[in-house]
From TrEMBL:
PROSITE patterns registered for this protein in UniProt: AMP_BINDING (PS00455)
Gene3D superfamilies for this protein: 3.30.300.30, N-terminal domain of ligase-like
InterPro entries per record: Ac_CoA_lig (IPR011904), ACAS_N (IPR032387), AMP-bd_C (IPR025110), AMP-bd_C_sf (IPR045851), AMP-binding_CS (IPR020845), AMP-dep_synth/lig_dom (IPR000873), ANL_N_sf (IPR042099)
Limits of the Acetyl-coenzyme A synthetase N-terminal domain: 12-68
Gene responsible for this protein: acs
Domain (AMP-dependent synthetase/ligase) ranges: 74-461
Lineage summary: Bacteria, Pseudomonadati, Bacteroidota, Flavobacteriia, Flavobacteriales
Organism the protein comes from: Croceitalea rosinachiae
Protein name from the UniProt record: Acetate--CoA ligase
Amino acid sequence: MSNYHIKHLEEYFQVYRKSVRNPEGFWEEIAEEHFVWRKKWNTVLDWDFSKPEIKWYDGAKLNITENCIDRHLHIRSDKTAILFEPNNPNEEARHITYKQLKEKVCKMANVLSEKGIKKGDRVVIYLPMIPELAISLLACARIGAVHSVVFAGFSSTALSTRINDCGAKMVLTSDGSYRGSKTIDLKGIVDDALEDCPDVKSVLVAKRINSNIVMKKGRDEWLAPLMEKAYGDYPPEVMDAEDPLFILYTSGSTGRPKGMMHTTAGYMVYSAYTFKNVFQYREEDVYWCTADIGWITGHSYIVYGPLANGATTVMFEGVPSYPDFGRFWDVVQKHKVSQFYTAPTAIRALAKENLDFVTKYDLSSLKVLGTVGEPINEEAWHWYNDHVGEKKCPIVDTWWQTETGGILISPIPFATPTKPTYATLPMPGIQPALMDENGEEIQGNQVDGRLCVKFPWPSIARTIWGDHKRYKDTYFSAYEGKYFTGDGALRDEVGYYRITGRVDDVIIVSGHNLGTAPIEDAINEHPAVAESAIVGFPHDIKGNALYGYVILKETGESRNRDNLKKEINQMITEHIGPIAKLNKIQFVPGLPKTRSGKIMRRILRKIASKDTSNLGDTSTLLNPEVVDTIMKESL
Ligand code: WTA
């Protein structure tokens, strides 16, 4: 057990050293002691970052749901597995015990199976944060189908692109969703998306908002009556360690979204191990991560990590501002939440409101606070620490990515002394490296560079679905023999890491990764637009907001600018979703370009951030004069 629950700093260093000296031995011991296997592995690790090919626990056989559900039944049968807190605080919360979870997952597994879904088939899940969402992930895993959850805030175009990319045969959705005081017509979005998805033969619809939706004959069916009739047991499909568990799309700096593929055994071991350590979860705790299961944070730290540890995990359907800005703290008080995990953007939004929204609740149940998704600024860190944690709760600033499957750098509460804005130290098994411009690893402390990882860990994504070359080019080509994260970081005098942000064309807005290319593609589809460039600029609450520079075609010049701005944002909403809307749009006569035709985003970024005192070298520009015009007219 000693490797599994780290209790003080010295122990962390001991465990860390062991994990680096003998990674295979380290991960073998954890896998052996803490999980159930149908068959043990032949080799712990095979890897070659030049291909890249990574296999953990090859030869092993297992089912992740057996580890997340069945094995708990003899001791935790009546313990709450999922605690569902609805959007409306007057609707009663629902406790789903491990026993009930097993029955629901098995019923849904039978439903999927009766609809012809088999091991290896892809199922797209487009559901709001209701229990059916978690259950559907587990039901897919039970029968060996590969789930691909699409965040239910994405548009129909984004949804159809993802359905077609992974070749899904089935979509799970609902008649709609609640979001604060609003409802959203999810089924309508699915109907639109499916116009472009000929391979989807079946749509199962969960009832949530009782709206009047159209069910397409022969394709759509209500989920509840099927579940009712279904048998409540389903033997777990025996999976290979490296069988795909899920595909989750993330934005790239260019073109199509990347379907990151995660496999079964390594992902299970790493998400469970990090959950236990980063949140110091104890049997009686109630753990709450406010993310949506549509993102990796929800996969690893609402569903798989917590359930593999037999935890009680809260699923929250609502938003932090409904019915008022005290909602998070109301829920913490009501369910006596012990670990609370959220995003810096939510903290910043709540910190702007009256402090009474926090102080009127009893938050004494809290033990550990977490953040994820983007760098947390010092002010937000202190507000969280002072007012939510009342200076008693360590804050774990967890750095990781969709690609990494689990947390790579984070303090371990009560062991690692925290430092505002620092993700601090690597988890056991994680070997970070900072690289300089010449591709050399930077040694020593008090340095900064581009963040890479030198050695594989169990939950690293194995490929981009259908595009292994892109996987190699994106992550393993910038620095030979290393996984490149796309982030910059600095290492302070004691070896703590601080993530400074993306060094590529991905912009993080309210914790959501947005690639510039797909947004620009959407804008450029507007008939009046000739070309566009998107950059991020600092925003109080969102962290970054989007600033668009747009060149109009001649035909667009005479159009009303305000209307054009609305239409451009409408295009973005249709193609990607409202999260990618631009805060500012500036119409420009041209864009600063290098002689090779590349847009010099560095300059656009500075203008958008009103940081124009030193624009750096503009001599290599093809059209330096355009910079003055853009500056003069900037918003
Ligand atoms: C950023 C989310 C600073 C980072 C789990 C990373 C962070 C990207 C942090 C991945 C953090 C995430 N501090 N930056 N604690 N956590 N990031 O794939 O730029 O949605 O590369 O995964 O978010 O975002 P993704």
